[in-house]
Prior knowledge:
Layout: H1 2-18, H2 28-48, H3 52-60, H4 70-87, H5 91-114, H6 123-130, H7 134-146, H8 161-169, H9 173-181
Helix pairs in contact: 1-2, 1-5, 2-4, 3-8, 4-5, 5-6, 8-9
Amino acid sequence: MFDQLSELVKQFGGEAVVNNPAVPNEQNDAVMHEAGGSILSGLKDMVASGNISDLTGMLTGKTPIDGNNPVVKQLTEKVTGNLGEKFGLSSDAAGSVAGGLIPQILGGLVNKAKDPNQPGFNMNDLVSAISGGQGGGLMDAVSKYGGQFGLDQNNDGKVDMSDAMSAVTKKGGLGGLLGKLFGK
């Protein structure tokens, strides 16, 4: 996952980092590496703190990936702070880097995860990486018991990530999905 994220940071880092006069050229690679690491750790922090609804909205395309998106805002603050602290960039310069990278990188991650032509990278991989591997356990439990509770959203005989993503975008959202699973 970090490799795909690093690839996206390099892809979109030209304008936000390399062509940014506030970032010394000798620090370009280190700044991009730090930005990628901060984004991944920020996503993991959101999952650990239970901030699932904002992530779900972003991953399903329900909320646009722009400066108004709560995930983008939270990650921009984290990346801005880390770049300022580690590289001595002003808050304006660090904010410019973060604001230029984060929406593009998150959009790229979501598009890659949804693209069936991206071998070895899918929504399950993304959720697993963000949740520190714990998303798989949740998905295993949902797959095992979900059919009994009417969670097979696409009627393909199994409950998987596409069913979960479909369920959280329908009326009732994640609460409805969990309610079905736990009989509430």
